[in-house]
Amino acid sequence: MAITTGRPVSMIATSDGVVLDPQDGTPGVVVRDGRRPVGLPGRLERAAALLPGPSGHLWVLRRVGRAPSFTSATLVDERGHRDGPHLYTSGRYGPDGSGGLLVWNGAGVWQRYPPPARRLTTGRVTAVGLHHLQVLECDAGRGCREFLVDRRHDRRTALPGHDPSYGEGVLSPRGTRLAGSRGYGAREPGTTVVRVADGTVLHVFPGPPGLSTGPLGSLVWLSERWLAALHGGRLTFYDSRHDHTIDFPVGHLRQLAWRPAPDAPGTPAARPVTSSR
Known about the structure:
Shape: globular
Oligomer: single chain
Number of strands: 26
Strand content: over 45%
Helix content: under 10%
Structural class: mainly beta
Largest sheet: 8 strands, mixed
């Protein structure tokens, strides 16, 4: 499936297909397995933006009133029908990696859903995973420190050092590995896989830095062991256990969406989809 647009496209895997939502006003579509693309149904069509929700659901974001940063979020099912809470924030919503919502505002980053709402950091989030966040907190006296936040147990672990060349990243499901981009000023520029506990570099993808993460991303952890990455016209599966890669030429694919294969519960299967040309 191809959408021609010069802007990013949100891609969200559903139980039986994928939702593609261009961020330039172009109408979005849903592509269900074995079927032709159709327009987004119900509330999905009227969304300012879409984010992945809990299993079988999506978050519909809309701006409220005249303040561009004041946003509502409504949980809907895949048919576009409301099936959960209707939330408001004066900050900015973002995905938490497990179907919930984070809120960025001047006081830090908050877990907005699932309840109870609570502040996770006074700094900023540098990586998101299924149950973990990596956060960066700075103060005038002690400089900057990074922490691994386990949202399930409300536990914070200080991480060694801080590399200012890192951009945003994506954490593996158990939070033991980080895939992210390093700038040209770094000793090893490019997209790098790092062991979180001690900062050891496990693998560096060739080429310039800048592989993207999240709903707009070209980096997806399929399991604690396997990472899928789109770069340089190739789809690469990286085995972080044995530092081994498997490459496939894919041409103009730009983004990834994935879900477990329906005939193999619990086994990740990549679902690459063209987002733009």
